[in-house]
């Protein structure tokens, strides 16, 4: 078993981003600027946004965290997004999910200027991704592809099984793995909770991407010998063993599956760190105007 080490890969890529950001700042007279909007005080969201802001500082970006109480109206939030869209000093905008029930996440996503949509969720970016055109790729799938590329994992002609069909990870991951690119050129099966004979489907995978949101769902008897296993799951449980008061588990039973896998990502220390890298790279490209010229 070999470890797909998100800590190692993300550190290397962030160093490259830091150098590019310094060059951009010297030429443009300002730093790449990411704005994150956080509504309410969800514990997971607080942690994620704090990590994104901290990483922006590490690579030489400017970052702004705009916070709203849970009772902000949808109209007020959309008005703020419109204001940010028009600000030429802001390169990227993310609105942290989940949002309160009275706010439509699709309406919020579509309100963000697709040229500042560094999360890669806007329908224009998703459509361009499907057509293999330049776009902002959703941060988690983007990070996974960067990891596969870093380790030289052979994907061409391989059978890939994606477990979970969310618009954030599963669906875009299936598109990226199938594209005529490197990494890519896989034959992809996209599975989900209604898939018949799910165990047999996963067993056929040379590459397995688990993004179903269920602790230790993929077990050793579901993975064939030598498979490459990507664990996207971040399942939090309260724990007296850690300082934070909770422990993270993946969607893959690491202890069992690692004995059969040729390569596997840990949780924590795997895909989560690569998601941040995907976001940072998108933000840098937004600032430089390489995908959508300014």
Automatic annotation (TrEMBL):
InterPro entries: Aminoacid_DH-like_N_sf, NAD(P)-bd_dom_sf, THF_DH/CycHdrlase, THF_DH/CycHdrlase_cat_dom, THF_DH/CycHdrlase_CS, THF_DH/CycHdrlase_NAD-bd_dom. GO terms for molecular function: methenyltetrahydrofolate cyclohydrolase activity; methylenetetrahydrofolate dehydrogenase (NADP+) activity. NADP(+) binds at residues 164-166, 234. Its EC number is 1.5.1.5, 3.5.4.9. Keywords: Amino-acid biosynthesis, Histidine biosynthesis, Hydrolase, Methionine biosynthesis, Multifunctional enzyme, NADP, One-carbon metabolism, Oxidoreductase, Purine biosynthesis. Residues 4-119 form the Tetrahydrofolate dehydrogenase/cyclohydrolase catalytic domain. GO terms for biological process: L-histidine biosynthetic process; methionine biosynthetic process; purine nucleotide biosynthetic process; tetrahydrofolate interconversion. Pathway: One-carbon metabolism; tetrahydrofolate interconversion. Residues 138-288 form the Tetrahydrofolate dehydrogenase/cyclohydrolase NAD(P)-binding domain. It comes from the Bacteria. PROSITE patterns: THF_DHG_CYH_1 (PS00766). It holds the Pfam family THF_DHG_CYH_C. GO terms for cellular component: cytosol. Gene3D superfamilies: Leucine Dehydrogenase, chain A, domain 1 (3.40.50.10860), NAD(P)-binding Rossmann-like Domain (3.40.50.720). It catalyses: (6R)-5,10-methenyltetrahydrofolate + H2O = (6R)-10-formyltetrahydrofolate + H(+); (6R)-5,10-methylene-5,6,7,8-tetrahydrofolate + NADP(+) = (6R)-5,10-methenyltetrahydrofolate + NADPH. Catalyzes the oxidation of 5,10-methylenetetrahydrofolate to 5,10-methenyltetrahydrofolate and then the hydrolysis of 5,10-methenyltetrahydrofolate to 10-formyltetrahydrofolate. Belongs to the tetrahydrofolate dehydrogenase/cyclohydrolase family. Homodimer. This is Bifunctional protein FolD.
């Amino acid at each position: 078993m070999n470890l797909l080490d998100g800590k190692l890969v993300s550190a290397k890529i962030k160093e490259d981003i830091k150098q590019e950001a310094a060059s951009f700042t010297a030429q443009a007279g300002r730093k790449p600027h990411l704005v994150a909007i956080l509504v309410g005080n969800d514990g997971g969201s607080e942690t994620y946004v704090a990590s994104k802001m901290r990483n922006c500082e590490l690579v030489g970006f400017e970052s702004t965290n705009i916070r709203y109480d849970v009772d902000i109206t949808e109209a007020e939030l959309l008005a703020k997004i419109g204001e940010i869209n028009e600000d030429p000093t802001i390169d990227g905008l993310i609105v942290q999910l989940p949002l309160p029930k009275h706010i439509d996440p699709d309406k919020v996503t579509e309100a963000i200027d697709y040229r500042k949509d560094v999360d890669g969720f806007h329908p224009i970016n998703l459509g361009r991704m499907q057509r293999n055109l330049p776009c902002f790729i959703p941060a988690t799938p983007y990070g996974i592809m960067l990891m596969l590329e870093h380790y030289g994992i052979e994907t061409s002609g391989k059978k890939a099984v994606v477990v979970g069909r969310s618009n954030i990870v599963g669906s875009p991951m299936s598109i990226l793995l199938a594209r005529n690119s490197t990494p890519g050129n896989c034959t992809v099966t996209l599975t989900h909770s209604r898939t018949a004979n799910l165990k047999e489907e996963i067993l056929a995978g040379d590459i397995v991407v688990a993004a179903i949101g269920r602790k230790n769902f993929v077990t050793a008897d579901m993975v064939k010998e030598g498979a490459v296993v990507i664990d996207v799951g971040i399942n939090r449980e309260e724990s007296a063993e850690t300082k934070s008061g909770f422990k993270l588990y993946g969607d893959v039973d690491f202890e069992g599956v690692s004995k059969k896998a040729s390569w596997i990502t840990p949780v924590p220390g795997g895909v989560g760190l690569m998601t941040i890298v995907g976001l940072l790279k998108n933000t840098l490209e937004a600032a430089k105007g390489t995908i959508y010229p300014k």
